[in-house]
Amino acid sequence: MVVVRFLHTADWQIGMTRRFLSSEAQPRFSQSRVDVIRRLGRVAQDQACAFVVVCGDVFESNQLTPQTVRRALEALRSVPVPVYLLPGNHDPLDAMSVYTSAVFREEAPEHVHVLDGPGPHRVAPGVELVAAPWGSKHPGRDLVAEALSVVDQGPAPAGTVRVVVGHGAVDELDPDRRNPASISTGPLRAALDEGQIHYVALGDRHSRTQVGDRPGIHYSGAPEATAWREERPGDVLVVEVEPGAEVRVTPHHVGTWSFHLVQERLGSDADLDALDARLRALPDKDRAVVRLALRGELTVAQHARLEEVCARHRDTLAALDQWGRHTDLAVLDDGTDWEDLGLGGFLATAVEEIRASARPVGGAVDEDGAEAEAEAEGAGLGVGEDRPGLEEERRGEEAAREPFRPGRDDDETSARDALALLYRLTRGGVA
Amino acid sequence: MRVHRITVRDVKGVRESTVEFPEHGVVVVEGPNEVGKSTVLEAFDKLLDPRLKASSLSKEVKRLQPVGRDVGPYVEAEFTVGGHRVRYAKRWLRQATTTLEILTPVHEQLTGEAAHARVERLLNDSLDRTLWGALRLAQTGDGSLAPLADSAVLGAALDAAAGSDLHAEGGEQVLEMVEKEFLAYFTRTGRPTGDYRRAMTDHTEAQHGVTEAHRRLDEAGRLLERQQSAREAVEAGADVVARARTDHAAAQAAQVRAEALAEAHATARALLGQARERSRAIVKDRRHRVELAEQVDRLGEETDLTERRRAEDHTALEQLRPLLEQAEEAVAEADQALERAEDVCDLARADVDHLVQVDQAQALDRLVERVGSTVARLVAARKAVPARPVGAQEVRRVRELQHRVEVLTAQHEAASARVRVESLGGHVEMARPDAGPGATLSLEAGEISEGALTDEVVVTVPGAARVVLEPEADGRSRREELQRVGEQLATLLADAGAADPQELAATAEATAAAQGAVRDLTRDLESLLAGRPAGQLREALDGAVPAALREELDALLEQARASTRHDDDHPLPADVPTARAVAHAAGVDVQSCREARRSAVAVHRERQQGAALLRARLDRADGHLESLRRQVERATSELAEARAVMSDGALDEEQARRATLLAQAEVEEAGARRALAEADVEGVRVRLGEAARRLEEAEEAQEAATATLHALTGQVEMAQSEGRSELYDLAVVALEESERRLASLDRRARAARHLWRTLTEHRDRAHATYALPYTQALEELGRRVYGPGFGVTVDDQLVVRSRTLDGATVPFEELSGGAKEQLGILARLAVARLVDPTQGVPVVIDDALGYTDPDRLVQMGAVLGASTAGAEVQVILLTCTPDRYAAVPQAQTVRLSA
């Protein structure tokens, strides 16, 4: 009997940027997306895979700088087996496709192939990849069904293994029930059952997912995480197909980045100690992206300390920000902190005045988190990561976004910060 | 702080000195200049200076060392500070030591570093250094106070006085820190600066970066859309081109058919043309043959006529020939006759010339002779002119003078007295001294001399008498006049070289005669030589016969000799008139001969011309005949040849046949033309053109669309290769980061600004509150010196800004030195009275009030005394003027002496 073993991966998103990353962390993030290609290449070699299939969104966009494309191709050169790339919604085969660009045409290694036509591609004796490449960002139809329609009806000939290679949301996981581009799973299951096809390799979901109860239809997930709330990102799948037997799918972890959502209730110095320890315990901090969702009440002194803790960890983590919508921190100012400092005279009256303008304290929302939040909501929530059009809309909004206005007049925030500043300056002890 | 005692030893110029201070009240430290009053205080300052440990070698320490003495300056002081009474001493530079003894409340004794540190702690805790510095009025100070707002002790005191609680322990220090923080983000005027400002700039740039990246990304998207439209346009264009091609092919087929009909018509037209041509040719041949026959006849007739005319001309020429010869002979004869007549005439004219020459020579000869004699007489006449010619005018003048002498003499004598001297016996001498030495007359006995007494006359009778007779005065002047005129006459005569007037007259006559002769002869010569060159006259007047005259005569004579002929046949006529008559007759003869010759020549010329005319006509007739004969010959042979080819009958038959063929061709051509017209060739052509144009347009449009597609594809590839999407994402990342950074800085900046503004505002309010009790204290003291009209304004930094006295307000800087000093002392006293006695410091006034008038000095003294009375204030006054502070009641005086 013929046994075919290959490596299933997707959503490399080469050239992706994350706006919560600093300009210092962004290059590391980009580099990691290239480095992971080399690691998955080693997995393919170690696991004796016959080839690697990448189910779409190999590139974050069709319009990437030649440098970015070259670096990816250079990494691909180190993969020791043939690699089949499927154009996805991020890198469709349109007129501007990265796959038809001069850089790609001239510099793609010989063992790297683009699945640029719908239908079967015979990639090795007895192995057919039924590809459903994206020709544009808005196909408006089920490309996988279309690709399958040109495959001979009935069970595959003996000695032939057929693997469907697709990209996009499957109907049962797509929140948009009327999306005409959703991949219908019913016909795929029937084809699997009949033996017309043997495995469906999908991309688009960054979370590693098996569709349905039985193995056979899988999202490999992104080999490097891209957002919070992705489940089991950072894996590739080694797939072993043997017609007549159940397909064997084994995940291998290759990712190095992690996204952490830290939700804590704060109310005491001990809580602050715990938060500090939790952050301190995070592994690979320079590749850890942390979002804080903090609630509770803090004194002025504790709030000052929280700021200090965050500032310290921000230096080591790839990113640390506050998830505004889920942050609800009240700073309690009953004056005891100030009494402890023993400020008298005009300092005391000034503090009184500032405290008055700082009230009411509560819901210390970090306004800067708003945009990052939108991104967190949109990505990795178990649905089609990128609904067609979302990307363009987002870009349009960004360009038209109200710019940040510095130097606003004094308000509650500046009052609170002024108090914190005074606290910090005088805490050292004034004679 | 209270100072109780200060001892200095080996400090500057002071060997040793101790000053004891009372607990409170005024102490006046008195002593002459240089005795070390200021040195004591300076040494005390150094003792308390935390920087100057005993081991210090700083300049400030070295300044304390006495000049030229290698000893360690020593200062010891006893004072109370912060409730501790201490005795503290230091020696620097030599055997450096520090000793401290705390006397109360708990006894302690420390040395070295420990002592220094203990004192430093004590002072830091309990000495308000701002106040310590402010309450001292140095010798060199102008009375103005250091800003007092920073003094915590004063602040607390003023707070208490104002009944408020605005003083903040260390408040200024906090404000300073806050201000430092504020200035890290803002300029003093509140404009962003430093990192904050840079972050703003970066953020704006990042925004521009995103906008530009988005524009380019958008552009790429539009490019893609345009490329798609272009691709669709190319596909649609291909259909249009295909349809246009089909239409064009159909139109081309129609065109081919129409062209075939046109070709058939063209052939028929060509055949018709050919038939017409042939028909025309045969008609033309026939006409030519008729013309040729007529030409042969005409030429024959013309030849006959020409030959007849030639014969007539020939006969006429033969008849003319003898007449021509006769005329020639007549001309020759006339020539000979004329020649002869001219010879005779020439001879006669030569004779006339010759005779004229002879006459001229004779006339000239006579002239020469006359000129010669006249010249000779002229020379003689010139010689007769006297050497000194005398003119008539001179003679007239002499005569007038002579006459006047005579008149004057007569007048003189007539007018003068008369003298009559008669010698009666003896010798009498009579002399006229005026008339000259010789005018002496001797009268001998009885002689009588009588005359007019015109001159002085001296009559001397020797041995007897001398009589002097003097003429009257008039007589003398007359005499002088006479003498003057006489001298004039004499001079004139002498000039003329004449002895007397008679001689002069004779000379004048001779002169006139000689000059008249010269004039006459000159006129003769002028008339003789009139019409000749002027040079000849001048030569003659100079006394010689002109040489040119002689030469001319010689030349004439020579000519006459030369023209003399010797022909005996024709004797020379007798004279010129005769010769002229002969010559005239000969001239008339010549004229008639000439006339005859002219007539003969005219006849000859006329006949010659007639002959030439005839000969020319004969020549022309010969040429014409020759030509006619050749034409006849040619026409005859041509006609014969034509008839040989086709006889005249055959020619007629051929013409009829060709006419029939032509009619047939015309019918055929009309048929073809009709068929062509029915085919609508023009319509077909237009339709084909239209189809071709449409095809061309469609192809062009397609080409353009393809070019557009290619261009757009190129642009799309270009845009693709730039990676605009990634660049946009990176720009957004950069914007995010710059915004994060800006937001972070902005929070800090706004916090600092908020805090700084609020603190500054509260501090200023506090200062303003303080100013009131301080002002009251100062004014209360001031009114004691200046009266109730005294007032001051104090700013929120507790600086005195102006003084008001009886309604006049003067800024502090503009006050006089004395007034400043007084106000300075009052301000210090006011501060000293305000502060807590245990925290207060001594007021030290070093050598002040030097410019204060005595009355004011008394008042100041009273205030000094009063302000210390009952108050826990220590006032130390240093002075070198013993009585300056005499008015201070209850002052203790310490005298320092060298």
Rough outline of chain B: flat
How would you sum up the global shape of chain A? elongated
The residue ranges of chain A in which pLDDT falls below 50 over 5 or more consecutive positions are 361-386
Q: What is the level-2 CATH architecture name of the largest domain in chain A?
A: 4-Layer Sandwich
Following the backbone from N to C, one meets helices and strands of chain A in this order, namely EHEHEHEEEHEHEEEEEEHEHEEHHHHH
How much of the sequence of chain B is in beta strands?
5-15%
Strands side by side in the biggest sheet of chain A: 4-3-2-1-11-12
Helical fraction of chain A equals 25-40%
Strands of chain A, total number = 16
The profile of the biggest β sheet of chain A is: 6 strands, mixed
Poorly predicted runs of 5 or more residues of chain B: none
Gyration radius over CA of chain B: 86 Å
User: Can you tell me the CATH topology of the largest domain in chain A?
Assistant: Purple Acid Phosphatase, chain A, domain 2
Mean pLDDT of chain A: 85
Q: Total strand count of chain B, please? A: 20
What would you give as the CATH superfamily of the largest domain in chain A?
Metallo-dependent phosphatases
Secondary structure tally, helices of chain A: 12
- CATH homologous superfamily of the domain at 1-127 and 881-898 in chain B - what is it? P-loop containing nucleotide triphosphate hydrolases
Structural class of chain A: alpha/beta
CATH class descriptor name of the domain at 1-127 and 881-898 in chain B: Alpha Beta
Organism (chain B): Ornithinimicrobium pekingense
Keywords (chain B): Coiled coil
InterPro entries (chain B): P-loop_NTPase, YhaN_AAA
Protein name (chain B): YhaN AAA domain-containing protein
